[in-house]
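Quick question: what would this complex look like in 3D?
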Amino acid sequence: MTPDERLDATFAALADPTRRAILARLAVGEASVAELALPFDMSQPAISKHLKVLERAGLISTQQDAQRRPRKIEGARLAEAVGWLEEYRQVWERRYSALDDLLGQLQAKPPRSKRKRH
Amino acid sequence: MANKLEITLPSDREICITRSFDSPRRLVWDCHTKPELIRRWMLGPPGWEMPVCEIDLRVGGKYRYEWEDRSRGKTMGMGGVFTEVTAPARLAARERFDDDWTGGETQVSQIFTETAGITTLTLTILYASRQARDGAAATGMTDGMEHGYRRLDDVLATLA
């Protein structure tokens, strides 16, 4: 996948509340399908479907070594998505902080035309 | 302390930014529509100046921004056409960068609301495609990798 396609897959996978909740759960430690299904009012096959989407996006992986095949969060792909928004945020934060400064200056002193009249 | 900037993704092709300013709406509006004021804040990275800032503030009127980094001999330009001008509340336009890094025209809408002297600006950018949106800010992707897990909560909250 190209970086663009990877981002597309990541954001598509994140665009679902159940999948975000699964990720939040996996962020604190790996878990089996049965364990992940527990807090949701969903069957294991339904949860498996969500897990497949997350795995295809590279956001989680399946541990092969254990019988219960726990799922584990993959930090790198998520970090890519974070970096994507983070860059965007920084551009606008820089810009609007410059606007804050200007607004402060404009409010601190009266307009020049008024001062001239005195 | 600067006011918090919120970023959300309302649809596949949009990015929405919300930010409050400790100033009356009229002033925030002026800073977005008067060239002599725009030039004082819309500068981009350090070292960049804005030699061209022309605005014909009416529906169908055009605007043109050009930036220059003289020390490195780099320039960047963009232009657009206003589709809505309702002072001091709503400003919308279709715009495009000269080198078209956004992959086609974007539709930009800015809504200014004021409550008790605090102005909230909601900026929504609609890209030509989902790919264009995702590509628009992807340049710093590798730099952002080091943020890793500790930003997880922030991202999940942003996308919620």
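Answer marked as accepted. The longest helix of chain B spans residues 25-33.
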